[in-house]
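Re: duplicated header lines in exported structure tokens

Our pipeline writes sequence and tokens for each protein into one text file. With two proteins the header for the second block appears twice in some exports. Here is an export where it did not happen, for reference. First protein block:
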Amino acid sequence: MSEKRLNNTIFLMYLVTDNYCRAHNISAREFLSLDKKYDILNYVAECPDIFDSMTNDEMVEEIEQYVS
């Protein structure tokens, strides 16, 4: 993975975390607990191109579907 792609993936992981926390009014620590259970950030890392084209709300919806 190129450095540019890696940086973009990390940024997307940050956006997903931030958007999900705001949408559900939870802390980053609570999100990380969910991540530990569902491996959310790995999911984002596996398909960053999909998340790259999503709006903030779409990112939250995608994660909600993934964890349900």
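Second protein block, exported in the same file:
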Amino acid sequence: MIQDIEPKILYNQYTPKKPKETDYIAVFDKNKILIKETEKGLTFPEIQDLNTACTYQYLFAVDQKCYFLYMNFEATQADDLVYNEVKSRFVKMSELRYKADKGVCFAAYTAFHLYQWYRSSRFCGCCGARMKPDQKERMMYCEKCSSQNYPEIAPAVIAAVTDGSRILLSKYANREYTRYALIAGFVEAGETAEEAVRREVMEEVGLRVKNIRYYKSQPWGIDANLLLGYFAELDGDDTIHLDQNELSVAEWTDRERLKDMDDGFSLTREMMRVFYENK
């Protein structure tokens, strides 16, 4: 999956580091990221590649390479940035998983998660005053009312609903992503992840499930999610009642159709492969 970058290691603990010219810089323009093209493929630009004054915020390190966030959120349009003779361009986050290697993609998704939080946490939700990054931990702090704001992580479930040699596949409605997926949705306040599986399956396809079994989790920074994967078995009638606001397609699919669906990035696709291999 996308987070499997071994032998490299992600160090996501916050430390108040100062940027060096050779550190990577994450520059975002809403849902796009600035990527540098090299002979070895796509990578992050280094701080020395940008000829633009800015405040930088430390994000994390991969092995010994540090990543910083370009904090001037009002001036990240492509035409507003000056490059030091480096071939760089903005790429949609949704496209990056098909154009960059896994290590670059995982770093970009994780950086995007933090970018969205820093960008939305500039002002206090209690009193409206401007917030400041804390120097001891990953937190935004309001000096006026002492409010504290930490990065938000939204738990969501992915449900592989099976019936013997069949699995339920679906496609999202009105989404940019059009490939087959599994039933998925956010965990609501006051419910367990297993209850969320039952609710989402019932809401989206009108089916009951039993024997809900946890499989694995995955960070998915592009949506600030922690994905929790579950397998569940059909309980009773297999007639699908489609929620067309959420899904465009839902259908029972034989195991053999899943042979080549694992993309090596997503928990959804890995779960399809696991079912195909009858594990």
